[in-house]
């Protein structure tokens, strides 16, 4: 969908300043594939991180969500296979107790279409993600 406007990476590491290199199911990074031959994308390169979750849902909603928010990943999506819905998180923040999370959580249902963050002209029909729901 993004063509040559970004790089879609599947289960490849992203480098976080917290000395972590998670391997999200999908990450959309700015630039071209050649930009990441000698290094992995950093948070400021990431446009969207997507985790596909069923058995890992709780982990993706807690540990990974906090890790991505702490590292200022602006847009984090969870494809929730258990509930056949898309969870969209944005606006990372830190609360007064030092916990990291996202201010906004939106749920999109299988019969809806969503716009990709940073690509206002690109939309995803969730009927294609959750067929037969």
From TrEMBL:
Query: Which residue ranges does the record assign to the Putative restriction endonuclease domain?
Result: 5-126
Query: Per its record, what are the GO molecular function terms?
Result: endonuclease activity
Positions of region (Disordered) = 1-24
Recite the UniProt keywords alphabetically.
Endonuclease, Hydrolase, Nuclease
SUPFAM superfamilies (UniProt xref): Restriction endonuclease-like
Q: Does the keyword Transmembrane helix apply?
A: no
Which domain of life, per UniProt? Bacteria
Q: What is this protein called?
A: Uma2 family endonuclease
